[in-house]
Amino acid sequence: MNSDDLRIFVAVAEAKGVSRAAARLGLPKSSVSRQVTRLEAEAGAILFERGRGGVRLTDAGHALFDQAVRVGQLIEGAAASVQAALAAPRGVLRVNVPHLFATQFLAPRLPDFLRDCPEVELVIDVSHAPAGAMAPETDVVVRVGPLEDSALIARKLGVSELRLYAAPQALGRLSPRRAGALLAEAGLVEAVALGQYRSVVGFAGGRASRRVQVQEPLARMALVLAGAGAAWLPAFLCRDAVAQGRLVDLAPGDARGPIDLHALFPAHLAASPKVRAFIGFLAGAMGPLRG
């Protein structure tokens, strides 16, 4: 059975007549009648009972009708998905991302997306929203850490962790290994839940001491980059600074995590070209986050 014959069969059943179905489809009556006859031959059963008022489905016709409708829906859905995938991303895309992620990771990389998708206009919201929550006008949300149950589709972008970083100028003559050891000797290696780290530890006179306590990661990162001392920071935010030699890892074997990063979006936007393009960009920008 081919899909075209099934489409004609459904049209005749719904119109309750070959002539009416042919008129709706814009086909010759003879062609419609011939396809119905061919389908009945393939099915090995009479599908329609013919009478003065038109046609009606037989028991065999009823059995085939539901399956034929499903086949038609599957074909239409597949065609729509292909067309959506081929369409150029365009229009306004509203995203919600954490402030730290937006300023330290997304913003420096965003010109690449804007260059590749010139017909997309981004609206970026960095206001806090509970994990799993989504404003009605938002297309994509990015969440760092555990997710709550929700009806949103979640695409995992990568896995990061917390690492103990310091700027080289904060160490003086200390090696990174020795600086990490001094923190351990002073009992200053924090052992708290992810998201509750706050200490910035400085080094002087061969000793380590707590100099600042601040839970906001962006402020902690700024202090570390300025040379105030060592602190636990998200690895995905520090990757560029490490590559540039602006930060060093004091305890490579003691990473804390994992920290999952996800993009979430409603099911009806799964085939949206602009959503697919943005999430693909994020996944590519993340790359391998470990190490």
TrEMBL record:
Belongs to the LysR transcriptional regulatory family. Residues 1-58 form the HTH lysR-type domain. The keyword Protein transport does not apply. Keywords: DNA-binding, Transcription, Transcription regulation. This is LysR family transcriptional regulator. The keyword Transcription regulation applies. Transmembrane segments: none annotated. It comes from Roseomonas fluvialis. It comes from the Bacteria. InterPro entries: LysR-type_TF_proteobact-type (IPR058163), LysR_HTH_N (IPR000847), LysR_subst-bd (IPR005119), WH-like_DNA-bd_sf (IPR036388), WH_DNA-bd_sf (IPR036390).
